[in-house]
Amino acid sequence: MGSFNPMMNTPEEENLIAAARLILKELESNIILSSEATKILEDLAIKLSSITKITKTKDEKEDGDEKLSDIKLRLDSIQNKIMAWEVGQSMIWGSGSDQTTEILKAVNEVKKLVEKFETLNPNKDTIEHEVLRKANDVLQTSMARIEEEFKHILVHNRQNFEPERLSFRSNDDDGIDSTSIISFEDDSFDDSVHRESISRGSEVHIMDLINPQVIPNLKTIATLMFDSNYTKECCHAYISIRKDALDDCLFILEVEKSSIEDVLKMEWATLNSKIRKWTKVMKIFVRIYLASEKFLCEQIFGKNEVVGWCFAESSKASILQLLNFAEAIAVGSHKPEKLIRILDMYEVLANLKPDIESFYQNDPGSYLQTEFQDVMARIGDCASTTFLEFKNAVGANPSNAAFPGGGVHHLTRWVMNYVTTLIDYSNSLNTLLKSDTDDQDQVQDSSPDTSPGVENENVNQNSHLSPMRSHFRSLMSLLESNLEEKSRLYREEALGHLFLMNNFHYMAEKVKGSELRTVLGDNWIRKRNWKFQQHAMSYERSTLSSILNLLKEEGLHGNGGSNSGSISKTLLKERLQGFYTAFEEIYKSQTGWSIPNSQLSEDLRISLSLKLIQAYRTFVGRYANSISEKYIRYSADDLENYLLDLFEGSPRSLHSFHKK
Length: 660
What we know:
Blueprint: H1 11-28, H2 35-87, H3 97-120, H4 127-156, H5 215-227, H6 231-252, H7 260-265, H8 268-301, H9 306-330, H10 339-359, H11 363-396, H12 410-422, H13 426-432, H14 467-487, H15 493-512, H16 516-520, H17 522-549, H18 569-590, H19 598-622, H20 636-643
């Protein structure tokens, strides 16, 4: 506004100025003003202020008209440039730094115009409002194109994910663990029980999901969109692209989308293979891919609070897909063959829990953390229930017929190998299982330990046992009780004892040679050693008592004692022939009996030989003069050699070797 020129004043203004001078002169005389005079002067001040404001606004308006015209011209120029960019085919962030800088400058200028005119809050139908509307349109157009650039960079600069470089694929991925699908009554048992390799304490591995060279461009675009109040649009663009990338990752890892119903319908052989793959995929997906995804999100968005939201929303579908499979397993059946695999799943989840908690700390992803913990708890419940079902199956495993040959029952092999494998899950089992010491139905050892030098294990020792140890001991008692029931199915008492000898010996050796020793203890092993030795002696008594009676001297000297009367050759002959018949029956039957452990078999043959062959040598030698050679079918050496054929599991006959 120009300076005041008195030559341009109107007569009315001259009068007003004269009056104002008079008022000023009176005020300088320091007279006391009445309330009425004070009120008039206050009204005058208000009136003068209003006149000044109106004049100032008018002057500014005239000056602003010139600025608005310049702004409109500049805005038209920017609009033309952005529209040309909008219809262009090439990407600005791939065409060189000069053009990128020019576009950023133009967009920043429009953004500042919008901010400036929004503070004026102009009324409709004004020039200012028209400029603001146009600036917003130009900004929206530029943001839409920048968003496309953002998506383009994210899509076309993805790094290939190669799981084979991370030792993901293995030759047995598609194989089936036969021991996990075997039945208690299956004769074709494989002694080896395999668990999945669960890497405890593995560290995260960050990989570049996006070409590192374009990260600065992505950061620049994100910052520009955030500063332009297009935060939501930028985040949605990022989430949509990265969600697809995570889906592709699961596809590369060969994870199929299956509903809970689909999983529940799967045969165990198929499900077993899928669980094994799932345990590997979960580790890779969380420790490598999710960790890298979180890092990428932080690289692009910095410390902005949207990081948690973008990461949670982009990873939500994929992590829930993996958890959905675990949920299906948790609500499925509790068949014993599933236990190892379910424990594998539980341990993977337990190991990954700290990672999930660190990834989804804040509200945007807290529900995923909660879902993860809930699924882990349900898998844990499933594992503990399945273990208890396993125990029940061992105790209730019935048999309608005696186990052929009296060897090591496949139930014994199953349980001992399974329990040996479960030692690897000690921490998890102690966490998941409740001690069964308070269970009134707990099965104790079927008979008290009366073996010399062995402590009684039934004297309230369970009060200080860990839950797993307590359950394992009761499980062994259930197995022994079941085996004793099965031994009663044999018609031959000797075979029943041989059966228990074999099985108790197998149990003791399995515990002694594995980590089970630390759980069940040396006293437990000594007791089972004593038990199998007792059954070995009972077997010998049952087998030899009647046949050795035939070789005794009593009854061969008439009515007197061993030194009175003459020897009855007829009775001698009958005794000898009865011995051969009994031996042949033993040979015929017990060659079909089985002692799988070679050392145990050899020891028992030696024991039989010492008792039987020595008695035969003594008998034949004592009465050699009274026995015709034609009645002696076998020499002592023959019989000793024949004893070597026992316990091979293949019945044989000696009839073809009879002497005439």
